[in-house]
């Protein structure tokens, strides 16, 4: 157990854990419960924030994500993904109703009901951050909250 903890600590100390996995072909739903393929974002660098409605750190960062999403000067797409029914998240209908009561109009929220992104990106906790290249390959994941400046630096 001590070796496992030491290995995880070593990986986290580098600030990013990189994987060779891809999110090509992943099917999600949008906040209106309509199907969305991540393939529609192919050709662009993508930043993904993985979050949950029960996570106070995640919620405190949504306003900054909303502002970053509206920033036309950035050279990447911002997506947030919640996973209804996974890791303690509300069921889909309740999540959608709850989220629509918030005022983050610039933020793209996709729903990973099957936990596919969680599995492929090996997300262990919330918030987590994923950077994809233009072919939807996972370039890196970063645990914890990131500011807009840190996100811009991670996507470079």
TrEMBL record:
Query: Sorted alphabetically, which Gene3D superfamilies does this protein's record hold?
Result: Glutaredoxin (3.40.30.10)
Q: Which InterPro entries match?
A: Redoxin (IPR013740), Thioredoxin-like_sf (IPR036249), Thioredoxin_domain (IPR013766), Thioredoxin_ResA/DsbE_sf (IPR050553)
- Signal peptide feature range: 1-18
Q: Which domain of life is it from?
A: Bacteria
Q: Which CDD domains match?
A: TlpA_like_family (cd02966)
Return the SUPFAM superfamilies for the record: Thioredoxin-like (SSF52833)
The segment(s) forming the Thioredoxin domain are: 17-144
Which spans of this chain does the record mark as coiled coil?
A: none
Molecular function (GO) terms for this protein are: oxidoreductase activity
> Is this entry keyworded Nucleus?
no
- List keywords of the entry alphabetically: Signal
| Pfam families with a match to the protein in the record | Redoxin (PF08534)
Q: Please state what the protein is called.
A: Redoxin
């Amino acid at each position: 157990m001590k070796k496992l903890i030491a290995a995880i600590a070593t990986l986290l100390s580098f600030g990013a854990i990189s994987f060779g996995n891809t999110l090509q072909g992943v099917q999600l739903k949008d906040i209106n419960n309509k199907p969305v393929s991540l393939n529609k974002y192919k050709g662009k660098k993508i930043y993904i924030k993985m979050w949950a409605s029960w996570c106070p750190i995640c919620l405190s960062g949504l306003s900054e994500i909303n502002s970053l999403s509206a920033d036309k000067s950035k050279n990447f797409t911002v997506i947030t993904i919640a996973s209804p029914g996974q890791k303690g998240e509300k069921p889909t209908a309740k999540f959608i109703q709850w989220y629509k009561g918030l005022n983050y109009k610039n933020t793209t929220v996709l729903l990973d009901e099957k936990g596919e992104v969680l599995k492929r990106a090996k997300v262990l906790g919330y918030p987590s951050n994923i950077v994809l290249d233009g072919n939807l390959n996972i370039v890196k994941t970063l645990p914890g909250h990131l500011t807009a400046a840190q996100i811009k630096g991670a996507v470079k």
